[in-house]
Every structure is written in C-alpha cells, then in structure tokens.
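Backbone-to-sequence.
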C-alpha cells in the first residue's frame, strides 16, 4: 500500500454518473465468451427505434456472428417496421418481428433503452432469458440488466458496443462499421452536439478506415425524404407557435402533427422524426417541442434544449426520459393539454448558472 499516513483507508464512492467499472466489463466479456456453441442470443433495442438503437444492435450482432454465435435474433417492440432511412443497414437479415422472438433465449442483450418500459411487450425476456446484458448511454438508465454497461458520457450506445467488441477481440469490418457509424452520426447530430469529443472523432476515423462511404450513408439516413413529407413539413412548420415566457423567459417553440396530417400526405410516422431538427433552429427559444400523434389522444413528444434547460427533467416528470438536451415522453389528452403540462415543468428545469 502506498502513501501510508496511518489514517484509515479512504473509500472512494463511485460517482453515480461514472461509466462501467472493470467488474462490469469483465462480467459482460465472460457472458459472451462462455456462450455454448448452440446458445440462442436475442438482441432487443428500444421501441420506435432510431439510428443508435438499430445501428448499435445490428453492428454488435454482426460482431457476435464473427465471434461464432449462430442462433441469433435482433428485434424491437411494436410493429416490425424499419424506417426507410435505415433500410440499407447491414445485418437487417437478423431482424425478426417481436412476435417471433425467442421466448426463452439463453442471453438477452438490450441496446439504447434507458428503462424496461422502452422494451414494450419484450420486457418479459429479462425474466425468461438465462442471462441479461444492457448496453446504454442514458444517465437515467435504471440498470435493469443482470450485467449493465451504461456510460452516460458516451455519445451513443454504439460507442459502448464498439468498446465491448474490441475487448472481445472482434475487429471492425465494413458491415459492423456502417451500423456503428449510422448510430454515431444520428446521436451526435452529425458531430454537432456537445458529446462530440475527440474520442468520438477517433472512433469515426476508425469506422471510415474500413472503406464505408459517408456521403452515401448520410444522404440515405439524413437527406432523403418523399415529396409528400416535404409538403407535410411545410404545413406542420407553418403552424408552429413561439412563446417567449416559458422556462423563465428562455422561450418555447412547439408544433404538432396529427395522424390525419400523415394520411393526407400519404406518409408513414417515421418521417416526423426529422421535424424537431427544423423546429429547434428557432433563435428566439431555448426549448423546442414536437408532438406526434400516435393514436387519438396520444402523442409521442420530442423535447430539445439549446443548453439552458434540462429537458430530461421535464420528460421524467411526465413519465418519459432521455438526455439533458434531448428527451421525450408519451403525452395524453389534446396537444394544448400536453403542452400545458410541459409549460408547468419548464421553470423548474432551468439549469442554474455554475457557481463563480
Ligand atoms: P426523440 O425525441 O424521440 O428523438 O427522443 C429523444 C430522447 O428521449 C432519446 O434519447 C430517447 O431515448 C428519449 N425518449 C423519447 N421518448 C421517450 C419515452 N417515451 N420514454 C423514455 N424516453 C424517451
Ligand atoms: Mn435512441
Ligand atoms: Mn442513443
């Protein structure tokens, strides 16, 4: 023991927001290295999957295949519809509808889900599986797995997935890299958000070195939408409302899209995911919000902040979750009623200025 001062040993508390410890990595590695040759592995990502959910899951699945895992399924709760921007992802052949997922896998691995509720009807697999492993980067993650690799400082779940693959000795190939690249670019807003650290760019460089084509990938994932969606966006953005008072005067901008809007323009719900990126540009508001109707009286709500408000607090208070500056929840009632509840939470969610 070094530095013997004669006083009692200081036990350092692990900060609640620290990443996985050595024991967590070792436990995860041991789960995967000790799989029997005929083990059935079920990979699940969160409901209404985004680029990080699908990309980290499929990239990791392709890595497991290289490791020799043969019986493997990838899935997510709800209708088995992959948003068009992600329909070119490698590994999609591993996807099965939730209704066909192994009822009692030997191992279940969850991706980008902060809590069990994000697994929808597949949540029972946490009990029926022989073992469970969680890979995620939400600070609010409830550590619902048997083994949890949760790094709130990671820009995307794909960062955690790549670290685990490296520890398992699985190198990157173009298929794995494309999946992880899509995950990394979607969650960092194409390397624009605060979480874009030097390590993120180092990872991007290693992914690109496999020969994947960033121009083609970005055009497919971010820059392509049907003409009907362009017109739908025009309508929905045209009805946006700007309110200067909420969030202690930092301002709120919001809009909504109904099922009828989608039907009139003959569009699928996934096209609405990109809407928040146009709304959050509004210079006069720190907080932006899009309500996407999912059923009569039910809305998938997206919240964003430019940095003055912790919108994950708002989302958590209203039954959802997310990150400090990007969060969401399911809202019930009319759009106006849901926004009223958001207004009611915003003042408390303003981030206090750092002490001088
Ligand atoms: P979105 O606005 O759908 O892009 O989601 C932004 C963030 O909020 C993501 O990190 C999601 O994980 C989280 N999120 C969105 N909707 C919900 C929900 N209903 N429950 C918990 N977290 C959510
Ligand atoms: Mn996600
Ligand atoms: Mn994510």
């Amino acid at each position: 023991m070094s530095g013997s001062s004669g006083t009692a040993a200081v036990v350092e508390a692990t900060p609640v927001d620290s990443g996985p410890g050595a024991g967590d990595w070792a436990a995860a590695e041991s789960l995967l290295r000790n799989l029997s040759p005929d083990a059935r592995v079920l990979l699940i990502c969160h409901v209404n999957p985004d680029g990080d959910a699908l990309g980290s899951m499929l990239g990791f699945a392709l890595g497991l295949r290289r490791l020799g895992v043969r019986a493997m399924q990838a899935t997510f709760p709800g209708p088995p519809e992959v948003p068009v921007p992600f329909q070119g992802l490698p590994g999609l052949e591993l996807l099965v509808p939730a209704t066909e997922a192994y009822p009692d896998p030997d191992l279940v691995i969850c991706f980008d889900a902060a809590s069990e509720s994000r697994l929808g009807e597949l949540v029972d697999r946490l009990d029926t599986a022989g073992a469970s492993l969680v890979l995620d980067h939400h600070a609010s993650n409830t550590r619902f797995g048997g083994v949890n690799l949760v790094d709130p400082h990671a820009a995307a779940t794909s960062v955690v997935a790549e670290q685990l693959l490296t520890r398992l000795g699985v190198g990157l190939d173009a298929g794995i890299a494309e999946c992880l690249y899509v995950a990394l670019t979607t969650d960092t807003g194409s390397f624009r958000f605060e979480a874009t650290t030097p390590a993120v760019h180092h990872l991007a460089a290693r992914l690109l070195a496999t020969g994947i084509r960033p121009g083609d990938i970005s055009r497919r994932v971010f820059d392509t939408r049907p003409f009907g969606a362009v017109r739908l966006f025009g309508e929905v953005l045209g009805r946006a409302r700007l309110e200067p008072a909420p969030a202690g005067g930092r301002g709120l901008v919001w809009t909504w899209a109904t099922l009828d809007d989608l039907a009139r323009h003959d569009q699928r719900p996934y096209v609405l995911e990109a809407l928040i990126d146009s709304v959050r540009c509004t210079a006069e508001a720190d907080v932006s919000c899009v309500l996407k109707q999912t059923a009569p009286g039910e809305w998938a709500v997206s919240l964003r902040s430019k940095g003055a408000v912790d919108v994950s607090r708002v989302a958590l208070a209203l039954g959802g979750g997310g990150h400090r500056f990007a969060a969401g929840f399911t809202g019930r009632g009319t759009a106006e009623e849901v926004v009223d509840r958001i207004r009611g939470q915003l003042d408390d969610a303003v981030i206090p200025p750092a002490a001088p």
